[in-house]
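Hello support,

Our group uses your service weekly, and this is the first time we've seen a run hang past the timeout. The protein is GTPase HflX. I'm not sure whether the cause is the sequence or the server load. Input pasted verbatim:
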Amino acid sequence: MFERYEAGERAVLVHIDFSQEGEREDLEELRLLVSSAGVDSCGIVTGRRASPHPKYFCGTGKAEEIAAFVQAEQADVVIFNHALSPAQERNLEMLCQCRVLDRTGLILDIFAQRARTHEGKLQVELAQLRYLSTRLIRGWTHLERQKGGIGLRGPGETQLETDRRLLRERIKTILKRLEKVAKQREQGRRARQRREVPTVSLVGYTNAGKSTLFNRITDSGVYAADQLFATLDPTLRRIEISEVGPAILADTVGFIRHLPHDLVAAFKGTLTETREADLLLHVVDCSDERAAENIESVHEVLDEIDADEIPRLLVYNKIDQLEEATPRIDRDEDGNPSRVWLSAQADQGIDLLFSALTERLGDSIVDLSLAFPPDSGRWLSRCYELNAVMSSGYDDQGHTIVHLRMPERDWQRLLKASEGQLADFILES
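Update from on-call engineer: The timeout came from a worker crash unrelated to the input. Re-ran successfully.
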């Protein structure tokens, strides 16, 4: 659909340091992104500015330096560690005579390589189309000409207008398909809620070790690698937690600093597993010197997707890369687990994580026995609907003796609905 420069494997990286804290990006993170995309770096051009240049982003002199560097190294693509405007990309491409990619485009390319499920591929395509829709003007060299010739005489629609219309139609089609997939995912979520199975979602900065931890806990074969965005598609597995019972563990896409808004919007369905979770396991690479900044970046994304109110348990992973670090549980002022130190790769401290999960999820579980009189079948059936009956039997008076196990919030709702009647059925343990 687009006539573009052939993107190759050799790239010149460009990193501009800005005085404003909010505009700063991480050069090391750019290297990781480029490596994850399978591109070889043939050099880095750095610079310093107070604010972006309107034409070239990096200033005229620096842009000419980049063009000369590209020529000398015979590079195929220039990758900026920043978000560029369509006009800036176009100007730089004309100057450098090669493909220019910004940070958002690089992340989208990695996402396109990693997506494996039908939903993941649709979400990536949606994000790419939204990103390209503002850059269509760079895609053709004959935009001024209208279609013509035998069989092509149309209503005077230019090629650019045709492309925009096709893009809009394709975006509508993808949104409809994603809506259908979201409904299917919602049905599964409702079924879990009816059975009152708690959901625990793994979140964290990309490459913190979430998938490795997920595989260690669930004995799954989820793709895990030492690279950014190894996981894109959400994976759900059932686990057993002592004193809590079955729970669902969800592995989700990793977050990153200044995550493009198009990606947040496109992956809303995937991130729903995070928004609907009962507990978030925030996995942190404790061997990373930027761990505190990464935690803050994850908090910002959680706030953006309305998941900032969900209870969190910090999991400090990769302690095997620290000297004298041992598996342990840190507690808050109320005595509740707040941090777990472990190594998923070295299989250290996994038992402590399960202990912390038992404490964090077990507090909200009600475990009691009730004697239902023969005329209270309505409330007994409600308990079965909630999948809260663990066992049942009968006594000599014809009462149904049931052992119930359910979340505290559901027990309180039942008590309120029965106007306290169920409290009279509770058996002393």
